[in-house]
């Protein structure tokens, strides 16, 4: 492509929702500075979406329209296909495969598709000699994939973790500020457009798990493994848990946490978990409020790096999409110049097995709702003792609306397997009015 | 250089202080992963420093030794010269010029040299077709130059600001935690190695000004202009100021702040200031403690991005130096592939004039030490009134050790010129026992 230097990089956009419209607005608004920074202009050539007539607040008349989005990648006047349709399979995946097969560079904001099919797509892109990029798939406008792939490239990354879902963080930090309960804050967030009508993917930690699996692959040079992420969402977190955590010096955040560990048999073990965690107030993530995202990477030379910003929204997401396009405009001169999508060629990424959690050592917060009658506390304490769980602090709070009593405890540092064993001992006990809630405490 | 793909990238290191030794340790420790991420190994070929015999904790015998560091760049077996000598002029600058003239890629951690000579060096590097990189010159291990140049490349940056000097942040946050005074904490920091024996560059804001001028050039696409940074350090900040700020909902941080503004005559105006600021406690920078650095960039699409991490130290600085080398290893295939050091070719950077400060609008904290006698408060209040300064809150505190009384006030939002005028009215008054201290309040 050397002959195209100084020629425009020609783009086709599939999907014209808020992000697609944002990308168009960005490229139009910042055209002059983008051209200065790229050394050549970006030019949108063609677009495609489901409904041609819909008013999106941007003028589409300068661009060719394709009813069939796969026709975008067949066009000779297109260098880069930008996929903003969403969904792990279906039209987005069809377009991705077609674009790469047609020799186009491929840029996407689609975390679900990358989590499920990213390795396969990257493998094909590498053999086709075309760039594939997905900065916007993780943490919205924050350039964290670039930060890991390039900025921290010299480091062995010990842990990568963070706040990866803006909806959950908005809900948890609003519960914290107002003392209101989950369902109430969720309804409000839905009314304000901060949460989807069907919030399952966000609330149950699946969206964060998509992003975590992508981050882990890039941070550790391991094969992406979404299926083994242990994801638990925030539905069961009560205002009372937040108040309890507060009094102990913690806030509650939904954290995606990944690390990789060696083992005796030489296989790397990949630990990936999305859970609500208790975060010590002196940790930088404790101060991340609202819909903000933040990612921490701990490198063996860099120490702790923190990347923070808006995790969603049309502007921030468009910023990340166009950053990828600018990278392509700057570097896609020859096939030699294409960095692998996951930093290392897919064939060289390490295979892993999922890590066991039982022997992990840490502190945990356990919360029980129990019947208000004599002997229940003794029953809990005995189960902890018999499981081998040592209790650092315990608080029992007066009756809830249903007559149940809340008992919250923080354990001393110990093996997670002990907590599991203690809870197994309590399973089926009619002293518990609902299943216990376990939250891990984030280590500094 | 296409024929060298998969061949090692060959390095020469000048300067073997703690950072130089850190770079060697990093390249040795992480050799395997760096090779995976680069697609080829990094190989240190030759080194140079003042004292060959000194024990640096790393084995230098595998590397050729040059007594004369400029001989490094003359070697045929060297691709990249890494300068870790320091100093804005002298041997570092001589080596930089020679390395570029000899067609070597050039990597440096030298903020003073880049602040003073970066544009000239970049211009020569661009015409020679060699890459020049200086990620480690700003904010230690944090990949913030990459973040601005590439991650946020799609955005017009409205402000770039942050905590750019770890020594000052360590001193201020220790004063905050302990209530001790500046001189006392500085001595301790010197004893612990967190501050230099001659701390002038750090304490007086010059080091932060070097970094700010580099960040501003990259963020705004403007010519680097170190000479117009208005730098005031932290020597005059008292424990009493910190306590006062605390009671008003602020912490005190040394902030480097830059923005660029248009004007009627078409010339861009560059505002660059390093001052102690009052930072609202709900701003992310208020939670940056110890020797940590943090940079905020506000993009017109990305919104607020925050990059945080260790601002100094051998490991973090080495991490940034080697990230630059990895970038070169990945991309330096042909002359077409070299991104300009300042993101935009030097000849295309905008010229600017320094911005005026008088018409800037904001809130300020003013602190006076005054004689303890009747009428002094009235004199202060009259000067404020006559300058046009409106006072939001005022606190007078009992006698200090020298019999002086402290009067601290926070103004309503107003023009900075009014504060200057009010203080001019007080100049020479024998009611003041020392010159007043003015600190601006960081806007959200």
From TrEMBL, chains A, B:
Binding site for L-homoserine: 196
Transmembrane residue ranges: none
SUPFAM superfamilies given in the database record: ACT-like, Glyceraldehyde-3-phosphate dehydrogenase-like, C-terminal domain, NAD(P)-binding Rossmann-fold domains
Domain ACT: 365-444
PROSITE patterns, per database record: ACT (PS51671), HOMOSER_DHGENASE (PS01042)
GO biological process: methionine biosynthetic process; threonine biosynthetic process
Name of protein: Homoserine dehydrogenase
Naturally occurring in which organism (per UniProt): Croceicoccus ponticola
Taxonomic lineage of the native organism: Bacteria, Pseudomonadati, Pseudomonadota, Alphaproteobacteria, Sphingomonadales
């Amino acid at each position: 492509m050397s002959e195209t230097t100084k020629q425009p990089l020609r783009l086709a956009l599939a999907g014209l929702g808020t992000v697609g419209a944002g990308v168009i607005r960005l490229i139009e608004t910042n055209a002059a500075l983008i051209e200065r920074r790229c050394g050549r202009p970006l030019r949108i050539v063609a677009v495609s979406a489901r409904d041609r007539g819909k008013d999106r607040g941007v003028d589409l008349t300068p661009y060719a329209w394709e009813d069939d989005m796969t026709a975008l990648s067949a066009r000779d006047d297109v260098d880069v296909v930008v996929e903003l349709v969403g969904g792990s399979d279906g039209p987005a995946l069809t377009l991705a495969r077609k674009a790469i097969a047609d020799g186009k560079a491929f840029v996407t904001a689609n975390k679900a598709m990358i989590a499920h099919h990213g390795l396969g797509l990257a493998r094909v892109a590498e053999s086709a000699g075309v760039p594939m990029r997905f900065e916007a798939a993780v943490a919205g406008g924050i350039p964290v994939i670039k930060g890991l792939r390039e900025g921290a490239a010299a480091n062995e990354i010990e842990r990568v973790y963070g706040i990866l879902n803006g909806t959950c963080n908005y809900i948890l930090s609003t519960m914290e500020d107002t003392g209101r309960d989950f369902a109430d804050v969720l309804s409000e967030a839905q009314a304000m457009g901060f949460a989807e009508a069907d919030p399952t993917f966000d609330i149950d930690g699946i969206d964060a798990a998509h992003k975590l699996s992508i981050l882990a692959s890039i941070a550790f040079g391991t094969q992406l493994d979404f299926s083994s992420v242990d994801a638990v969402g925030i539905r069961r977190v009560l205002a009372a848990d937040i108040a309890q955590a507060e009094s102990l010096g913690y806030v509650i955040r939904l954290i995606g946490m990944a690390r990789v560990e060696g083992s005796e048999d030489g296989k790397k073990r990949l630990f990936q978990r999305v859970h609500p965690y208790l975060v010590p107030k002196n940790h930088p993530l404790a101060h991340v409020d609202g819909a903000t995202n933040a990612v921490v990477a701990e490198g063996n030379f860099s120490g702790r790096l923190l990347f923070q910003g808006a995790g969603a929204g049309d502007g921030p997401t468009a910023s990340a999409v166009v950053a990828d396009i600018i990278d392509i405009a700057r570097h896609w001169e020859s096939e030699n110049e294409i960095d692998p999508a996951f930093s290392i060629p897919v064939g060289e990424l390490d295979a892993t097995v999922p890590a066991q959690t039982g022997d992990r050592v840490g502190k945990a917060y356990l919360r029980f709702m129990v019947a208000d009658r004599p002997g229940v506390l003794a029953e809990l304490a005995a189960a902890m003792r018999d499981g081998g769980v040592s209790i650092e602090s315990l608080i029992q709070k007066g009756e809830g609306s249903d007559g149940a009593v809340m008992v919250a405890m923080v354990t001393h540092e110990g093996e997670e397997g002990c907590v599991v064993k203690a809870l197994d001992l309590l399973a089926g006990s009619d002293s518990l009015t609902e299943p216990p809630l376990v939250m891990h405490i984030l280590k500094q």
